């Protein structure tokens, strides 16, 4: 009994001894995802961004004009700038050099005091940048040029390998008399991959160059022997021209640059003939994919300014004011704010939360835009013509949408006639297959598991929504069926919580028409149901391309390479069986010859090493019987599916514009550039 009480006492005790204290950079190595988002390829590149951000902060403070980045053959990365150089004198609090403090202590740096010696604005809110990169690198070396000397300190997994020491003098002939150079090697035991992608690096640094006009980036990749340079005098104006290079623009970019209180507001605005909106928001050069207060302030100012001008000049009546939705059609805007103490949501800086930024942006954009419209009546007329047309389309779209929603409610207990729904009522367990053609739809309906799999066949190709407004889009019966089947509504009434299926699977033929239908559907999802993609509900089925049959054994293959591999394996298996002793009660003839004879009745594919085989190429899902379709493409135990994800929304939007937009020249360039990379093209 005493032992039992002692054991219970121990289990209930919770004292200071139970608390584990992770010192220095141990928390970063223990939970890297908390600091860099993930240990995937995205997190790996975050190591570069943290070091580069420090150099960009120097440039924003007016102390650096050049940043060099080198991706080395041995897997390391070097980032160098011509800023002031990290201080090396002893820090009064840590009793270590300022360099070692910055590289080894979280929340240490020149970004927190707000005085003239540090940074008035910076990208790094949490001050963990350099220290995190140091912690997650097997080796890191920092060299600082200051006061005519070159200082150096080395680290292993974040731990200093000695004190800061002088390793040389700065030559009087060196054009860069001050600066910081950091070389690091990511830890392969931490990251899923340590292979840096040149394309990812270039895209990120190009946007940084746009956001800090006059800053010169030089990027070299030793692995491929290429060097790239970015330098934009135009800044955001150059950026918006780049974004709209494949679009028909309504006017020249409107550029605004103002300081309101402690907030510097910079924005570029341009309308195009497109129907979608593209707004890119940055705070202290950090991209905010979820927007924030600066976007809210911008939209308020845009709507008020254009409405004021339109009513004042009798373009619209006071009672018919335009809405924010009207203003956003065809709008491209870049909003960049710089402020002393940014409040981001999370270390990845997805959303800016400072309330004072909303007021600053609203004031700056509102005043400047009203002046611009008054001084450029031609631009004003084109913008108002665009938004008034959008307003008319909005009303037409509302009528069309209400018609679809009303139809869905009235018939929804009568869902679209072609929809073969499932019996399961829990959306988390339900799947919807969007199938190309009635023939494949028939096979899918017979082969499916009716409990949780619903089938909606499409007749032909749906409308290209990249070139159509909502009202025209909803005149398409196939799109109406899709909207009603999803259950989320569309436009203003879009509600993801009402999604009827948590797995929506596009299943099309493995030919050019199938690929086109798939692209049209992806365009629809990306433009009107983006949360279905974002929340991981959209998939692409992968039906096999081939059935390889040797004797009575048949296997499926999803590519030419796999077909050849499967064929060799099956032939080798047959030959091995011929050499093996026959099983008891059977003869060698019954094991090998009989199956070969059974293939003679089918179309013979050929003969490999004396073994006959047949290969069936599936160009259409309708060629498979229901059992085959279930076994290969719909059975959760065996099927292969691709989940659709958006890694870079800006890049994805650009690709959809090129492939599905009105402009032919960009599409022709894309096809010419990538034609040689296409495999298995069936026309």
Question: What is the fold's blueprint, element by element?
Answer:
Blueprint: H1 2-12, H2 26-30, H3 33-36, H4 41-60, E1 66-71, E2 77-81, H5 98-104, H6 129-135, E3 137-146, E4 149-156, E5 159-160, E6 165-169, E7 179-186, H7 198-211, E8 216-221, E9 226-230, H8 236-243, E10 254-260, E11 263-271, E12 278-283, E13 286-287, H9 293-312, H10 324-328, E14 331-338, H11 355-375, H12 377-412, E15 431-436, H13 438-447, E16 453-458, H14 470-473, H15 477-486, E17 503-507, H16 512-528, H17 530-534, E18 538-541, E19 546-550, E20 553-557, H18 560-579, H19 588-598, E21 606-608, E22 611-617, H20 626-634, E23 641-643, H21 649-660, H22 664-674
Parallel strand pairs: 1-8, 12-14, 15-16, 15-17, 17-18
Antiparallel strand pairs: 1-2, 2-7, 3-4, 3-7, 4-5, 4-6, 8-9, 10-11, 11-14, 12-13, 18-23, 19-20, 19-22, 21-22
Shape: globular
Q: What is the rounded Rg?
A: 31 Å
- Calculate the mean pLDDT score and round it: 83
Q: Work out the strand percent.
A: 15-25%
User: Which structural class is indicated by helix and strand composition?
Assistant: alpha+beta
Helices, by number, come to 22
CATH superfamily caption of the largest domain:
Histidine kinase-like ATPase, C-terminal domain
**What would the CATH topology of the largest domain be?**
Heat Shock Protein 90
Please report the total strand number as a whole number. 23
Notes on the structure:
Helices cover 39% and strands 19% of the residues. The strands form 4 sheets. Strands 1, 2, 3, 4, 5, 6, 7, 8 and 9 form a 9-stranded mixed β-sheet that branches. Strands 10-11-14-12-13 form a 5-stranded mixed β-sheet, with helices on both faces. It has a 5-stranded mixed β-sheet with strand order 16-15-17-18-23, sandwiched between helices. The model is unreliable at 10-23, 111-117, 123-127, 408-413 and 585-604 (pLDDT under 50). It has 4 domains: 26-230, 2-Layer Sandwich (Heat Shock Protein 90), CATH 3.30.565.10; 236-376, Ribosomal Protein S5, domain 2 (2-Layer Sandwich); 415-543 and 643-677, Rossmann fold (3-Layer(aba) Sandwich), CATH 3.40.50.670; 546-617, no CATH class. With 683 residues, the protein is of the alpha+beta class. It is globular, with a radius of gyration of 31 Å.
